[in-house]
């Protein structure tokens, strides 16, 4: 489906996510597992804060000189005998890729995990070709493909929302007769995928980092599927976002270390590969090496307050710490890029009309900012989006907008605020009721509760009770004046 | 030592008791306390909702109000509000309505004086035991802004360790937000509900009778959900705890107690 | 046309960034700190060996240290333990360097042995890799910090040699144990700059292939070898 993964409105997606008990439990378990692994891996490395700064400095430098690095990289791919296609839009990218497959007379496409190809909705396009088969070879993406192309829900663990029984059912349709042990099912997938790898003539891979000074790419995987996809077929098509450059292998190595520890809590991923166009005398690897460099609105962030989001290395750590992601999962966001990074990136790539709700789907707890290995101030960027939508694009309307503006006025004027303090108790009286209290010392104001408040307050009272505000005579400031008098202050 | 109380709109609107307890604790520890009159709010409700233009006057009022009274320190009952006031100098860099930078200059002075209640007691006053006694089992909810934006992970735990009779049990999932998030709780109430419900479950699982925090907003949120579900709990701000059954003879300085362990949780 | 649409694409980016292109030569990247170089830099070779073993075994990898003299027997035992051939071996001078030429002859007498041949085509070499029960490679480095061996492809040692066989063994000299990936990368960069390395693929391999994609339960042997053995040879 490309960037947008759901046609349901936001509130319906949230409701659906709230109902999905399994996804809920499995995401919580995954977050907790990754929490321990990630923090341990970072602690072992030591000086984590300085490593983050190092990673940030590399990524910021590359973005600052992105045109130069892209030029250098493409020159070097060409020198090695490869091809580079710069695609401003998904249509251009897809058109080029399909053309290459046709030119190379490709029939069997194997893909390793690539978020950018999902952005292109490339699988659908490939399926539409006559005489071309396409297979996702990352275990999770293979599972999703065989489940009628279910949407991914995480950028590192795409099938995180499925349990072993669901996978079992999917594999049974492929002829699997074993039990639901993940190890047995993984072996079945190995056998099944191996046969198709061996007949593949086109390999499509993503790219963790493109090495500017040598025209090769860097891939990080644990399964080894990317390595088969770049070894066996005679043609490799690399699809990458335009920002994924590093100056040289030296900086790639630093990023690989940050990525593995942040994404999966390992020192390095099992396979860290630097590869490109086959060299003279070699018999495997791509004889035909193509790189597609995609903009697809990324450049909208360049030179703006959102530029830092392009530092992202897709480790998924911000998803793994996010309390909102924990509750609504990847599908709740309705974007290929969920979680905090997705809430920042999706409106840039897909516009505010489609993804305008996502920046508000955050409590701004800053867990994302705290964990990001390249120091992207994610929660601040969410506020920036809110500012753009509210102040610049004037997308907020109606009663809520009016109330927020009144909050602004009321909290800026001591006179108005004083008036509010005087009348808050009485003003909310129509919505205030005596009701049983299970909570004691609920700001010490007896049993008076607001349970179905007016205006914006209803958002609060839909979910929880609100203690009625104190009478003016009980306010802190009134008490303090008396206290000062008792204390003997002259004023 | 002259201390101004940064009241917060929460304290004015909902939780006056927290202010009273703060004042009593601080005076007991030797501070001369005052409350700047014209202060209202740090500006987060509008700023974090994207109403940035509307937030500049709120911040300006806050700066004017707090700067109006001479003081050595400004102490706040909420980690979140403390954190944003420490961020004022960064935020005001984008303020088009402060062309001469006069608010920026004041904001820097105020930010340097600004402390959250628990960190002020431990790190500035150097007091480890306020002489309080509360015989119960409690759990502590850590607010996200106090932990991550203010960077204070330790002082509430250290102060609670020295409350006589108090057993503090670790809250599972302590790193996860309770779902308050200011206007988030209102605007995205469906998501907020899931988050606060999870927090209620974790708090219940500790078996604690009391839930303590340093942020009244979180307490109002978690307490409100407890009450909606009809589940029992007592909620207390740390200032209330430190003002319970105080015996001044028990007051101890940081130098008089064993050095506590670093941040007990992530 | 080997590069398409580049100039308008890059001009647009430069415009967004608000600065002209071709600034980089005057502003090369300066590494912010030397953490990559400093990490584990004070360890002695003996300590690095200990760290390498510990981290490799944790992966899990079967880890052996042998003398040059004991290497042939170890390999023979390994082949027997893994159930014999077909074997896939690289075509390389390393067999001479490690004094394994006699072993090559001996093992070929008992097992089916195929070589990754510089003169063979893609299909032939891939077939040899596909049917191989065991492959043996010669590694350039062993990284202590992560328990990683690094290998570079050449006409006699293709990429798939490391990935298609069921069991995988890699031989590395003790003198090539380095602290971490930093040192290995520095060497590869130096060799490339001097045109001594023309490899199109450098692989850092850290234990057996694995996946946590089903319920985050880690399973080994998804696409690549099911198990991995490192042999450190005293030199």
Description:
The complex is a heterotrimer of chains A (491), B (266) and C (235). Chain A is of the alpha/beta class. Chain A is 50% helix and 12% strand. Chain A is elongated. The termini of chain A are far apart. Chain B has 2 domains: 122 residues, 3-Layer(aba) Sandwich (Rossmann fold); 128 residues, Rossmann fold. In chain B, helix 12 links the parallel strand 8 and strand 9. In chain B, helix 4 packs across helix 6 and helix 11 packs across helix 12. Chain C has a single domain, classed as Rossmann fold (3-Layer(aba) Sandwich). Chain C contains 8 helices and 13 strands. In chain C, the strands form 3 sheets. Chain C has a 6-stranded parallel β-sheet with strand order 2-13-8-5-3-4, with helices on both faces. Chain C has a 4-stranded mixed β-sheet with strand order 9-6-7-10. Chain C is an alpha/beta fold and 235 residues long. Chains in contact: A-B, A-C. At the A-C interface, helix 2, helix 3, helix 4, strand 1 and helix 8 of A face strand 1, helix 1, helix 7, helix 8 and strand 10 of C. Strand 9 of chain A pairs antiparallel with strand 10 of chain C.
What's the CATH C level of the domain at 52-300 in chain A? Alpha Beta
Mean pLDDT of chain A: 94
Number of strands of chain A: 14
Q: What is the count of DSSP helices of chain B, taking H or I runs of 4+ residues?
A: 13
CATH architecture of the domain at 52-300 in chain A: 3-Layer(aba) Sandwich
What is the general shape of chain B?
Answer: globular
Label the overall shape of chain A: elongated
Helix content of chain A: 40-55%
Secondary structure class of chain B reads: alpha/beta
Q: CATH class of the largest domain in chain B, please? A: Alpha Beta
Please count the beta strands of chain B (DSSP E, at least 2 residues each): 10
Major sheet of chain B: 4 strands, parallel
Secondary structure tally, helices of chain A: 22
Q: Kindly state the mean pLDDT of chain B as a whole number? A: 96
Percent strand of chain B: 15-25%
What oligomeric state best describes the polypeptide chains here?
Answer: heterotrimer
CATH topology of the domain at 52-300 in chain A: Rossmann fold
- What is the CA–CA distance across the termini of chain B? 34 Å
Protein name (chain C): Lactate utilization protein C
Domain LUD (chain C): 109-233
Pfam families (chain C): LUD_dom
InterPro entries (chain C): FTHF_cligase-like_sf, LUD_dom, NagB/RpiA_transferase-like
């Amino acid at each position: 489906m490309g960037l947008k993964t759901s046609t349901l409105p936001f509130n319906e997606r949230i409701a659906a996510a709230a109902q999905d008990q399994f996804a809920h439990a499995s995401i919580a378990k995954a977050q907790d597992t990754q929490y321990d692994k990630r923090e341990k891996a970072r602690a072992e490395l030591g000086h984590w804060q300085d490593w983050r700064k190092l990673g940030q400095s590399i990524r910021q430098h590359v973005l600052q000189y992105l045109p130069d690095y892209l030029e250098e990289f493409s020159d070097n791919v060409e020198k090695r005998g490869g091809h580079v296609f710069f695609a401003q839009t998904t249509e251009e990218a897809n058109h080029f890729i399909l053309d290459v497959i046709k030119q190379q007379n490709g029939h069997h496409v194997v893909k390793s995990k690539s978020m950018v190809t999902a952005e292109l909705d490339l699988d659908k396009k490939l399926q539409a070709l006559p005489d071309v088969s396409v297979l996702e070879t990352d275990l999770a993406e293979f599972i999703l493909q065989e489940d009628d192309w279910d949407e991914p829900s995480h950028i590192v663990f795409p099938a995180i929302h499925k349990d072993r029984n669901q996978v079992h059912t999917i594999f049974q349709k492929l002829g699997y007769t074993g039990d639901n042990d993940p190890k047995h099912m993984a072996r079945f997938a190995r056998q099944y995928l191996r046969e198709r790898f061996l007949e593949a003539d086109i390999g499509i891979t993503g790219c963790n980092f493109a090495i500017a000074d040598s025209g090769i790419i860097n891939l990080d995987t644990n399964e080894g599927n990317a390595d088969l996809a770049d070894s066996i077929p005679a043609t490799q098509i690399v699809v990458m976002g335009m920002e994924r450059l590093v100056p040289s292998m030296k900086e790639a190595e630093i990023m690989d270390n940050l990525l593995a520890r942040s994404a999966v809590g390992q020192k390095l991923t099992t396979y860290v590969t630097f590869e490109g166009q086959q060299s003279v005398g070699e018999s495997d690897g791509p004889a035909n090496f193509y790189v597609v460099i995609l903009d697809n609105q990324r450049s909208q962030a360049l030179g703006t307050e959102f530029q830092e989001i392009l530092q992202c290395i897709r480790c998924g750590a911000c998803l793994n710490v996010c309390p909102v992601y924990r509750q609504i999962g990847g599908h709740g966001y309705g974007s290929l890029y969920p979680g905090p990074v997705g809430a920042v990136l999706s409106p840039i790539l897909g516009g505010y009309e489609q993804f305008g709700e996502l920046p508000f789907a955050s409590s701004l707890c800053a867990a994302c900012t705290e964990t990001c290995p390249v120091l992207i101030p994610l929660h601040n960027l969410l506020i920036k989006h809110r500012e753009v939508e509210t102040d610049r694009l004037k997308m907020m309307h109606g009663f809520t907008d009016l109330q927020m503006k009144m909050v602004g006025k009321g909290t800026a004027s001591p006179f108005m605020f004083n008036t509010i303090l005087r009348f808050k108790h009485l003003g909310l009286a129509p919505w205030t009721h005596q009701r049983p209290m299970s909570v004691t010392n609920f700001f010490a104001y007896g049993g008076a509760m607001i349970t179905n408040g007016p205006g914006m307050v209803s958002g609060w009272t839909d979910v929880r009770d609100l203690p009625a505000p104190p009478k003016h005579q009980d306010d802190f400031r009134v008490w303090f004046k008396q206290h000062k008098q008792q204390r003997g202050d002259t004023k | 030592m002259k201390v101004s109380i940064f009241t917060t709109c929460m304290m004015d609107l909902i939780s006056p008791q927290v202010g009273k307890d703060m004042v009593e604790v601080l005076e007991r520890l030797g501070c001369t306390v005052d409350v700047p009159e014209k202060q209202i709010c740090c500006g987060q409700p509008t700023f974090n909702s994207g109403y940035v233009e509307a937030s500049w006057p709120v911040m300006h009022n806050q700066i004017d109000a707090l700067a109006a009274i001479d003081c050595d320190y400004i102490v706040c009952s909420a980690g979140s509000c403390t954190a944003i006031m420490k961020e004022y100098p960064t935020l005001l860099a984008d303020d088009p309505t402060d062309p001469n930078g006069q608010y920026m200059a004041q904001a820097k002075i105020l930010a340097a004086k600004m402390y959250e209640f628990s960190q002020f007691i431990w790190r500035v006053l150097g007091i480890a035991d306020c002489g309080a006694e509360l015989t119960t089992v409690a759990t502590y909810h850590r607010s996200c802004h106090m932990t991550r934006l203010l960077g204070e992970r330790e002082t509430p735990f250290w102060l609670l360790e020295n409350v006589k009779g108090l057993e503090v049990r670790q809250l599972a999932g302590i790193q996860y937000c309770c779902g308050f998030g200011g206007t988030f709780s209102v605007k995205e109430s469906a998501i907020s509900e899931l988050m606060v419900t999870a927090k209620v479950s974790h708090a219940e699982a500790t078996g604690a009778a009391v839930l303590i925090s340093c942020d009244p907003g979180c307490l109002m949120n978690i307490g409100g959900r407890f009450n909606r579900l009809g589940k029992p709990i007592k909620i207390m701000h740390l200032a209330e705890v430190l003002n319970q059954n105080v015996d001044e003879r028990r007051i101890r300085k940081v130098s008089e107690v064993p050095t506590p362990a670093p941040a007990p949780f992530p | 046309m080997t590069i398409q649409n580049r100039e308008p694409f890059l001009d647009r980016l430069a415009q967004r960034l608000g600065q002209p292109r071709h600034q980089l030569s005057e502003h090369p990247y300066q590494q912010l700190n030397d953490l990559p170089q400093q990490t584990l830099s004070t360890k002695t070779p003996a300590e690095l060996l200990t760290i390498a073993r510990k981290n490799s075994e944790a992966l899990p990898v079967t880890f052996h240290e042998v003398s040059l003299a004991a290497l042939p027997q170890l390999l023979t035992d390994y082949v027997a333990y893994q159930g014999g051939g077909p074997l896939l071996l690289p075509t390389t001078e390393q067999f001479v360097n490690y004094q394994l030429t006699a072993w090559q002859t001996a093992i070929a007498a008992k097992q089916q042995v195929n070589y990754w041949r510089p003169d063979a085509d893609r299909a032939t070499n891939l077939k040899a890799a596909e049917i191989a029960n065991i492959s043996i490679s010669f590694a350039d480095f062993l990284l202590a910090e992560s328990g990683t061996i690094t290998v570079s492809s050449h006409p006699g040692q293709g990429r798939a040699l490391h990935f298609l066989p069921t069991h995988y063994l890699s031989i590395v000299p003790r003198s090539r144990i380095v602290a971490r990936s930093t040192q290995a990368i520095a060497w590869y960069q130096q060799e490339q700059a001097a045109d001594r390395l023309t490899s199109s693929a450098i692989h850092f391999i850290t234990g057996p292939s694995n996946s946590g994609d089903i319920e985050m339960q880690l399973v080994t042997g998804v696409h690549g070898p099911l198990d991995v053995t490192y042999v450190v040879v005293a030199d």
